[in-house]
Amino acid sequence: MASIRTLSSALGCAVSGIAVGEETSGADLQAVEAALDEHCVVVLPGQTLTPQGFVSFARRFGRPEPHVIDQYHHPAAADILILSNQQHAGRNIGLLDGGSYFHSDYAYLDVPSRCTMLYAIQITQEGVGTTFANLRAAYDDLPAATKARIDPLVCRHHYGNRDDLDETSRTVASVLSDDQKKKMSWVRHPLVRKHPRTGRKALYAVSGSSFGIEGMDDKEGVALLDDLKRHATQPQYLHRYDYQVGDVVIWDNCSLLHAAPLTDMTKPRTLWRITVKDKGPTL
Ligand SMILES: [Fe+2]
Predict the structure, then answer these.
(1) CA 144–ligand 1 middle distance (angstroms)
(2) DSSP three-state, residue 238
(3) pTM over 0.90
Protein backbone atom coordinates (compact mmCIF):
# COMPACT_ATOMS: atom_id res chain seq x y z
CA MET A 1 0.00 0.00 0.00
CA ALA A 2 1.55 3.28 -1.11
CA SER A 3 1.93 6.12 1.36
CA ILE A 4 2.71 9.74 0.42
CA ARG A 5 4.75 12.32 2.32
CA THR A 6 5.22 15.87 1.02
CA LEU A 7 8.81 17.13 0.82
CA SER A 8 8.25 20.87 1.17
CA SER A 9 5.63 23.59 0.84
CA ALA A 10 7.01 24.39 -2.64
CA LEU A 11 6.83 20.99 -4.34
CA GLY A 12 7.69 17.34 -4.14
CA CYS A 13 6.59 14.18 -2.40
CA ALA A 14 8.04 10.80 -1.45
CA VAL A 15 5.92 7.74 -2.12
CA SER A 16 6.90 4.61 -0.23
CA GLY A 17 5.69 1.05 -0.72
CA ILE A 18 6.08 0.99 -4.50
CA ALA A 19 8.41 -1.38 -6.35
CA VAL A 20 9.71 0.20 -9.56
CA GLY A 21 10.27 -2.17 -12.46
CA GLU A 22 8.50 -4.38 -14.94
CA GLU A 23 6.25 -5.66 -12.14
CA THR A 24 4.86 -2.27 -10.98
CA SER A 25 1.10 -2.70 -10.69
CA GLY A 26 -1.42 -0.55 -12.56
CA ALA A 27 -2.75 0.82 -9.28
CA ASP A 28 0.75 1.82 -8.14
CA LEU A 29 1.43 3.44 -11.50
CA GLN A 30 -1.78 5.48 -11.19
CA ALA A 31 -0.76 6.57 -7.69
CA VAL A 32 2.64 7.75 -8.95
CA GLU A 33 1.11 9.63 -11.90
CA ALA A 34 -1.43 11.34 -9.64
CA ALA A 35 1.36 12.31 -7.20
CA LEU A 36 3.45 13.65 -10.09
CA ASP A 37 0.54 15.74 -11.38
CA GLU A 38 -0.05 17.21 -7.92
CA HIS A 39 3.45 17.57 -6.45
CA CYS A 40 5.61 17.81 -9.65
CA VAL A 41 8.46 15.76 -8.09
CA VAL A 42 8.02 12.18 -6.88
CA VAL A 43 10.69 10.25 -4.97
CA LEU A 44 10.37 6.45 -4.89
CA PRO A 45 12.99 5.28 -2.37
CA GLY A 46 14.67 1.91 -1.91
CA GLN A 47 14.74 0.60 -5.49
CA THR A 48 17.04 -2.01 -7.05
CA LEU A 49 16.83 -1.75 -10.82
CA THR A 50 18.18 -3.43 -13.93
CA PRO A 51 18.49 -1.28 -17.07
CA GLN A 52 15.56 -3.20 -18.61
CA GLY A 53 13.42 -2.79 -15.48
CA PHE A 54 14.04 0.95 -15.41
CA VAL A 55 13.27 1.38 -19.12
CA SER A 56 10.09 -0.70 -18.97
CA PHE A 57 8.84 1.39 -16.01
CA ALA A 58 9.65 4.63 -17.86
CA ARG A 59 7.82 3.47 -21.00
CA ARG A 60 4.56 3.37 -19.08
CA PHE A 61 4.78 7.18 -18.79
CA GLY A 62 5.46 7.78 -22.47
CA ARG A 63 8.16 7.33 -25.07
CA PRO A 64 11.73 7.67 -23.80
CA GLU A 65 14.10 9.45 -26.17
CA PRO A 66 17.84 8.80 -26.04
CA HIS A 67 19.88 11.93 -25.30
CA VAL A 68 21.75 13.61 -28.18
CA ILE A 69 24.97 12.99 -26.21
CA ASP A 70 25.17 9.38 -27.39
CA GLN A 71 28.65 8.56 -26.05
CA TYR A 72 27.20 8.12 -22.55
CA HIS A 73 24.19 5.97 -23.38
CA HIS A 74 24.03 2.83 -21.22
CA PRO A 75 25.56 0.00 -23.29
CA ALA A 76 22.57 -2.25 -22.55
CA ALA A 77 19.85 0.40 -23.03
CA ALA A 78 20.32 3.55 -25.13
CA ASP A 79 17.31 5.15 -23.44
CA ILE A 80 19.45 5.47 -20.30
CA LEU A 81 21.98 8.31 -20.11
CA ILE A 82 24.71 7.66 -17.53
CA LEU A 83 25.53 10.66 -15.33
CA SER A 84 28.79 10.16 -13.49
CA ASN A 85 32.05 11.71 -12.34
CA GLN A 86 33.77 8.30 -12.43
CA GLN A 87 36.31 6.97 -14.93
CA HIS A 88 37.12 3.52 -16.29
CA ALA A 89 40.36 2.84 -18.19
CA GLY A 90 41.09 6.57 -18.26
CA ARG A 91 37.74 7.54 -19.79
CA ASN A 92 34.66 9.12 -18.23
CA ILE A 93 31.90 6.52 -17.82
CA GLY A 94 29.15 9.15 -17.97
CA LEU A 95 28.21 12.77 -18.49
CA LEU A 96 29.89 14.85 -15.79
CA ASP A 97 27.64 17.90 -15.38
CA GLY A 98 23.94 17.56 -16.10
CA GLY A 99 22.78 21.17 -16.53
CA SER A 100 23.87 23.23 -13.52
CA TYR A 101 21.70 26.20 -14.60
CA PHE A 102 17.90 26.32 -14.35
CA HIS A 103 16.31 24.63 -17.37
CA SER A 104 13.61 22.19 -18.46
CA ASP A 105 14.78 18.96 -20.10
CA TYR A 106 14.32 18.72 -23.88
CA ALA A 107 12.71 22.20 -24.11
CA TYR A 108 15.08 22.59 -27.09
CA LEU A 109 13.09 19.90 -28.95
CA ASP A 110 9.81 20.37 -30.84
CA VAL A 111 8.26 17.61 -28.72
CA PRO A 112 9.70 18.29 -25.27
CA SER A 113 9.84 16.06 -22.22
CA ARG A 114 6.89 15.08 -20.09
CA CYS A 115 9.14 13.91 -17.25
CA THR A 116 12.68 12.91 -16.36
CA MET A 117 13.55 9.93 -14.18
CA LEU A 118 16.80 9.50 -12.26
CA TYR A 119 17.96 6.35 -10.50
CA ALA A 120 20.62 7.05 -7.86
CA ILE A 121 23.25 4.30 -7.88
CA GLN A 122 26.27 5.84 -6.16
CA ILE A 123 26.02 8.96 -3.98
CA THR A 124 28.87 9.75 -1.60
CA GLN A 125 28.51 13.49 -1.05
CA GLU A 126 25.84 14.84 1.25
CA GLY A 127 24.12 18.17 0.74
CA VAL A 128 24.17 18.17 -3.06
CA GLY A 129 21.12 17.47 -5.13
CA THR A 130 18.88 18.86 -7.81
CA THR A 131 17.14 22.17 -7.08
CA PHE A 132 13.64 22.43 -8.50
CA ALA A 133 11.54 25.58 -9.09
CA ASN A 134 7.74 25.38 -9.21
CA LEU A 135 6.67 27.31 -12.32
CA ARG A 136 3.00 26.54 -11.74
CA ALA A 137 2.98 28.28 -8.35
CA ALA A 138 5.12 31.09 -9.76
CA TYR A 139 2.58 31.64 -12.57
CA ASP A 140 -0.38 31.50 -10.17
CA ASP A 141 1.16 34.32 -8.08
CA LEU A 142 1.67 36.74 -10.99
CA PRO A 143 -0.61 39.81 -11.20
CA ALA A 144 -3.60 39.36 -13.54
CA ALA A 145 -2.28 42.07 -15.90
CA THR A 146 1.05 40.25 -16.26
CA LYS A 147 -0.73 36.96 -16.96
CA ALA A 148 -2.85 38.63 -19.65
CA ARG A 149 0.29 40.12 -21.26
CA ILE A 150 2.38 36.92 -21.28
CA ASP A 151 -0.31 34.29 -21.94
CA PRO A 152 -0.22 34.65 -25.76
CA LEU A 153 3.60 34.89 -26.11
CA VAL A 154 5.72 32.32 -27.92
CA CYS A 155 9.40 31.68 -27.13
CA ARG A 156 12.25 30.64 -29.39
CA HIS A 157 14.30 27.76 -27.99
CA HIS A 158 17.60 26.15 -28.95
CA TYR A 159 19.95 23.70 -27.27
CA GLY A 160 22.12 25.66 -24.83
CA ASN A 161 22.21 27.88 -21.77
CA ARG A 162 21.40 31.46 -22.77
CA ASP A 163 23.36 32.73 -19.74
CA ASP A 164 26.59 30.91 -20.62
CA LEU A 165 27.66 29.99 -24.14
CA ASP A 166 31.39 29.58 -23.32
CA GLU A 167 32.22 25.95 -24.17
CA THR A 168 35.18 25.98 -21.76
CA SER A 169 32.93 26.79 -18.80
CA ARG A 170 31.49 24.12 -16.50
CA THR A 171 28.15 25.94 -16.43
CA VAL A 172 27.68 25.87 -20.19
CA ALA A 173 25.15 23.33 -21.53
CA SER A 174 26.91 19.97 -22.05
CA VAL A 175 29.08 20.50 -25.11
CA LEU A 176 27.98 18.72 -28.30
CA SER A 177 30.17 17.33 -31.08
CA ASP A 178 29.84 18.90 -34.54
CA ASP A 179 27.63 15.99 -35.66
CA GLN A 180 25.42 16.35 -32.58
CA LYS A 181 25.14 20.13 -33.14
CA LYS A 182 23.83 19.47 -36.67
CA LYS A 183 20.85 17.63 -35.17
CA MET A 184 19.74 20.74 -33.25
CA SER A 185 17.41 23.41 -34.66
CA TRP A 186 15.27 26.32 -33.45
CA VAL A 187 11.89 25.33 -32.02
CA ARG A 188 8.90 27.26 -30.63
CA HIS A 189 7.03 26.82 -27.36
CA PRO A 190 4.43 28.94 -25.54
CA LEU A 191 5.78 31.04 -22.67
CA VAL A 192 2.79 29.87 -20.63
CA ARG A 193 1.82 26.23 -21.05
CA LYS A 194 -1.31 24.38 -20.10
CA HIS A 195 -0.31 21.08 -18.55
CA PRO A 196 -1.21 18.27 -20.99
CA ARG A 197 -2.80 16.17 -18.21
CA THR A 198 -4.18 18.62 -15.64
CA GLY A 199 -4.81 21.71 -17.80
CA ARG A 200 -3.16 23.88 -15.15
CA LYS A 201 -1.11 26.80 -16.45
CA ALA A 202 2.56 27.33 -15.69
CA LEU A 203 5.45 29.39 -16.96
CA TYR A 204 7.48 27.19 -19.29
CA ALA A 205 11.28 26.95 -19.55
CA VAL A 206 11.88 30.64 -18.83
CA SER A 207 15.56 29.81 -18.25
CA GLY A 208 18.04 27.67 -20.16
CA SER A 209 17.09 27.02 -23.78
CA SER A 210 14.77 30.06 -24.21
CA PHE A 211 16.73 32.63 -26.21
CA GLY A 212 13.99 35.03 -27.26
CA ILE A 213 10.30 35.87 -27.65
CA GLU A 214 8.56 36.20 -31.00
CA GLY A 215 7.56 39.78 -31.82
CA MET A 216 10.23 41.30 -29.56
CA ASP A 217 13.83 42.11 -30.28
CA ASP A 218 16.25 39.72 -28.53
CA LYS A 219 17.22 42.18 -25.80
CA GLU A 220 13.60 42.91 -24.85
CA GLY A 221 12.66 39.23 -25.00
CA VAL A 222 15.56 38.07 -22.82
CA ALA A 223 14.87 40.90 -20.35
CA LEU A 224 11.29 39.64 -19.90
CA LEU A 225 12.48 36.01 -19.61
CA ASP A 226 15.07 37.09 -17.03
CA ASP A 227 12.39 38.92 -15.01
CA LEU A 228 10.19 35.81 -15.02
CA LYS A 229 13.15 33.58 -14.12
CA ARG A 230 14.00 35.86 -11.17
CA HIS A 231 10.39 35.72 -10.02
CA ALA A 232 10.13 31.93 -10.40
CA THR A 233 13.37 31.13 -8.59
CA GLN A 234 12.55 32.96 -5.38
CA PRO A 235 13.00 30.79 -2.27
CA GLN A 236 9.28 30.09 -1.80
CA TYR A 237 9.16 28.23 -5.14
CA LEU A 238 12.33 26.17 -4.63
CA HIS A 239 13.18 22.82 -3.15
CA ARG A 240 16.51 20.99 -3.30
CA TYR A 241 16.30 17.23 -3.13
CA ASP A 242 19.43 15.37 -1.97
CA TYR A 243 19.50 11.90 -3.52
CA GLN A 244 19.88 8.73 -1.48
CA VAL A 245 21.22 5.52 -3.04
CA GLY A 246 18.27 3.53 -4.39
CA ASP A 247 16.03 6.54 -5.07
CA VAL A 248 14.09 6.81 -8.28
CA VAL A 249 13.18 10.48 -8.69
CA ILE A 250 10.66 11.61 -11.31
CA TRP A 251 9.97 15.24 -12.18
CA ASP A 252 7.47 17.04 -14.36
CA ASN A 253 9.30 19.10 -16.98
CA CYS A 254 6.14 20.99 -17.96
CA SER A 255 5.73 22.51 -14.48
CA LEU A 256 9.30 22.94 -13.21
CA LEU A 257 12.75 24.30 -13.82
CA HIS A 258 15.64 22.38 -12.32
CA ALA A 259 19.37 22.86 -11.81
CA ALA A 260 21.85 20.07 -11.14
CA PRO A 261 24.76 20.50 -8.73
CA LEU A 262 28.35 20.92 -9.83
CA THR A 263 29.77 17.78 -8.29
CA ASP A 264 33.00 17.32 -6.36
CA MET A 265 35.26 15.16 -8.53
CA THR A 266 36.65 13.39 -5.45
CA LYS A 267 33.19 12.17 -4.32
CA PRO A 268 31.93 9.33 -6.55
CA ARG A 269 28.46 9.97 -7.97
CA THR A 270 26.61 7.88 -10.57
CA LEU A 271 22.97 8.05 -11.66
CA TRP A 272 20.99 6.72 -14.59
CA ARG A 273 18.64 9.10 -16.37
CA ILE A 274 15.70 8.44 -18.69
CA THR A 275 13.87 11.32 -20.36
CA VAL A 276 10.26 10.60 -21.35
CA LYS A 277 8.66 12.65 -24.12
CA ASP A 278 5.37 14.51 -24.22
CA LYS A 279 2.73 13.20 -26.64
CA GLY A 280 3.22 15.97 -29.22
CA PRO A 281 4.40 19.53 -29.93
CA THR A 282 3.32 22.31 -27.56
CA LEU A 283 1.86 24.52 -30.32
FE1 LIG B 1 18.19 18.59 -16.76
Answers:
(1) 30
(2) strand
(3) yes
pLDDT digits (tens, 9 = 90+) for 165-224: 888 887 888 888 999 999 999 999 999 999 999 999 999 999 999 999 999 999 999 999
**CATH at residue 65:** 3.60.130.10
Distance 75 CA to ligand 1 centre (A): 21
User: How far apart are alpha carbons 24 and 49 in whole angstroms?
Assistant: 12
How far CA 252 is from CA of 102, 104, 148, 259, 272, in Å, comes to 14, 9, 25, 13, 17
Burial class (CB in 10 A: 0-12, 13-18, 19+), 170: exposed
Structural domains in the chain (count): 1
* Count of residues making up the chain: 283
CA of 6 to the centre of ligand 1 (A): 22
Residue 114's domain spans which residues?
A: 3-277
User: Are the C-beta atoms of residues 154 and 191 closer than 8 Å to each other?
Assistant: yes
* Cα-to-centroid distance, 105 and ligand 1 (Å): 5
